[in-house]
Amino acid sequence: MLILFNKPMGVLSQFTDTKSPTSRPTLSGFGLPPGIYPAGRLDRDSEGLLLLTDDGRRQARIADPKSKMPKTYMVQVEGAPTEADLDPLRRGVMLKDGRTRPARARLIDPPSIWDRDPPVRCRKTVPDRWIEITITEGRNRQVRRMTAHIGFPTLRLVRWRVGPYGLEGLAPGTWLRARDTDRN
Questions:
Q1: Is 115 a catalytic residue?
Q2: Which of 125, 129, 134, 120 is nearest to 151 (CA)?
């Protein structure tokens, strides 16, 4: 079984919160089927597509960077990058944990998606812009670190696709069972 879940911002990508003395929202509050586990992670302050499965081999295949499964993000950044500013992302940037693989990156118009709760802070004197970034690895907070590296900090991060699976029509906090088309 493969579940597509639109994880809201502020929700942990796990079913229990063992690190906080106060209870933070987890996956257990969304009526997901029993016996499934996240295939990869999505930071608490990020939102969007999280895949969950009951199949350990599938979970490993989705999450393992060696599989090079593309993950596409819509990223709202502070500042006004140009296409040329994105060139380092396309070549790979050097982060503290090594050089990233080249990413696909392009400027996009603001997407027609749900409002975030809480909203992104708005600064009248500082512009913002949206970028679509596709990576084939999944280091900790990688997209955020990549945009910061080129001088445009991330304000909002929405994972839109993982491999062939996307968020189209899936509201925050809702899920659906995917068709089993990728079984090996």
A1: no
A2: 129
Token pair in block for residue 43: 């930071």
Phi-psi map region of 173: left, alpha, beta (phi>0 left; psi -120 to 50 alpha): left
Give tens-digit pLDDT for 25-81: 999 999 999 999 999 889 999 999 999 999 888 888 887 777 778 999 999 999 999
The pTM of the whole model exceeds 0.85:
yes
Distance between CA atoms of residues 81 and 129, nearest Å? 7
Angle at 168 between CA 42 and CA 47, to 5 degrees: 20
CB neighbours of 51 closer than 8 A, spacing ≥ 6?
2, 3, 4, 5, 38, 39, 40, 62, 162, 165, 178
CA distance 175 to 172: 8
Catalytic residue among 43, 54, 55, 182: 43
**pLDDT tens-digit series, residues 88-97:** 999 999 999 9
147: left (phi over 0), alpha (psi -120 to 50) or beta: alpha
